[in-house]
Design goal:
Blueprint: H1 3-35, H2 43-46, E1 59-62, H3 66-82, E2 88-92, H4 95-105, E3 110-113, H5 119-129, E4 133-137, H6 143-151, E5 156-161, H7 165-170, H8 175-182, E6 187-190, H9 193-202, E7 209-211, H10 223-237, E8 242-248, H11 250-266, E9 271-276, H12 282-291, E10 296-298, H13 299-302, E11 311-313, H14 320-326, E12 329-332, H15 345-349, E13 353-356, H16 364-373, E14 376-378, H17 382-393, H18 396-413, H19 416-424
Parallel strand pairs: 1-2, 1-4, 2-3, 4-5, 5-6, 6-7, 8-9, 8-12, 9-11, 10-11, 12-13, 13-14
Length: about 425
């Protein structure tokens, strides 16, 4: 059977399944909308129905959610710096990603939700925005999206490409289709040698895969802004010890409460800064803390905690880096349940000693480097995490050593943005 015939057959079967399941997307949006009302908005974009005439957005960056937007931020900033008049479209799937795009760039970039991977919707999307290059961030492997880019003559790249062993196993059922889709790519700019090797095992041609490093190492640090926010924070709470629980998920909330109870038994003045991962968890987290008998302040209501508050809930998006810098020690969530962890470089970059749980498959390489540098401690469960936090709160010298090691590692890892720009330069309009 000829390769093009096989591809048409596989694409046809894949698309047929998606069209049969298309009504489920409506129920999904409704279900998510009850948890996060923003999902009730802008449905037309998810099916590539746009008001008005087509527009030109020569550079298209697709980042699924807030974490991927943050990862892509140094690259988008560099593209804007190269040419301030360059029109860039950034697509996301989640409302938190959308909010982060607006917070970072406002009207400097276009933004819509990415359409579902239905061939008709993807064709309409490409026809409306007419991109001349596609930069897909990390692990967004949608067959119709990649094939439609090829069919429209749009060179496509996966940048900051990441593929864990777990994700590789998950793609096994679509291997025949994805291996063909990956051959349409101009380049896969991988975070590490391990990621590069896994993309090749999935079907990417070896001569199309390059290692450019992790864009997260090029995280921007505004030292003056961090200092100003830190001074304002400390002016309200004094010299109280502070720990932060960041990017937590629902199943991690009870452990965080238990850890804070344990730590406050030793340090009654200890303040917990708590930043849940998703906005729909802001109010439930506040209520759990109130039910625990603690006085709670929130970013939106009180702006800052004071001397009598036991917990300060960061119920805003885009401020996590600043509050990492305010803490003596950090716990990074998504790691006590099988989420795979969240960005460990953010606290390291601002000099905060970091503890995490054992589930780190999304950040395997970064976690390994941080541990080898002495900048990260990993607990096997919630009790072990509590022990690590307690040990660090009691040992300022150990915290300083971890902070210095983390900042040095981040500085040494910078450069992925320039390497990525070199890879995509030939196709930048």
């Amino acid at each position: 059977m000829r390769a093009d015939t096989t591809e048409r057959l596989l694409r046809g079967l894949y698309s047929a399944v998606l069209y049969v399941l298309a009504p489920v997307t409506v129920y999904h949006l409704i279900w998510r909308g009850f948890r996060q009302p923003a999902y009730f908005e802008r449905w037309s974009e998810r099916y590539a129905r746009y008001p008005g005439a087509p527009v030109d957005a020569p550079v298209w960056v697709h980042a699924v959610s807030m974490g991927e937007v943050n990862a892509a931020a140094p690259l988008v900033d560099a593209l804007l710096a190269q040419d301030p008049g360059r029109r860039i479209l950034v697509t996301t799937i989640t409302p938190t990603g959308s909010a982060r795009v607006r917070a970072l760039w406002g009207d400097r970039v276009e933004h819509v939700y990415m359409a579902y991977d239905l061939s008709g919707a993807v064709h309409r999307f490409l026809a409306h925005f007419r991109p001349r290059v596609a930069l897909i961030v990390e692990t967004e492997l949608w067959p119709n999206l990649l094939f439609c880019c090829r069919d429209a003559g749009i060179p496509a790249y996966i940048v900051n490409a990441r593929l864990s062993e777990r994700s590789l196993r998950g793609y096994r059922a679509l291997h025949a289709l994805l291996s063909r889709a990956l051959r349409t790519l101009r380049r896969v700019a991988a975070q590490s040698m391990g990621d590069a090797e896994r993309f090749q095992r999935l079907g990417a041609p070896s001569d199309a895969v390059v290692v450019t490093g992790n864009l997260k190492y090029d995280i921007a640090i505004d030292a003056a802004a961090l200092s100003a926010q830190g001074n304002a924070f400390r002016a309200r709470i004094g010299e109280r010890p502070v720990w932060i629980a960041a990017s937590t998920h629902p199943e991690e909330e009870a452990p965080v409460v238990a850890i804070h109870q344990r730590l406050r038994a030793r340090w009654p003045e200890l303040l917990l800064v708590w930043a849940p991962r998703h906005p729909e968890r802001f109010k439930p987290v506040v209520q759990q803390c109130v039910d625990g008998g603690w006085r709670v302040a929130t970013r939106t209501l009180t702006q800052w905690p004071d001397a009598d508050d036991a917990v300060f809930v960061v119920d805003t998006l885009g401020e996590l880096q600043a509050f990492y810098a305010c803490a003596d020690v950090a716990f990074v969530g998504g790691s006590l349940q099988a989420i795979g962890g969240h960005n460990l470089l953010e606290p390291a970059a601002v000099g905060t000693a970091t503890v995490t749980g054992p589930h780190l498959h999304n950040f395997t390489d970064i976690a390994r480097q941080l541990r080898e540098a002495g900048a990260l401690r990993v607990g096997d469960d919630a009790d072990a995490v509590a022990m690590q936090l307690e040990a660090l709160l009691a040992d300022p010298a150990a915290r300083r050593q971890m902070a210095e090691a983390g900042m040095q590692l981040v500085d040494a890892g910078r450069g992925a943005v320039q390497r990525t720009l070199g890879v995509i330069a030939a196709d930048l309009p």
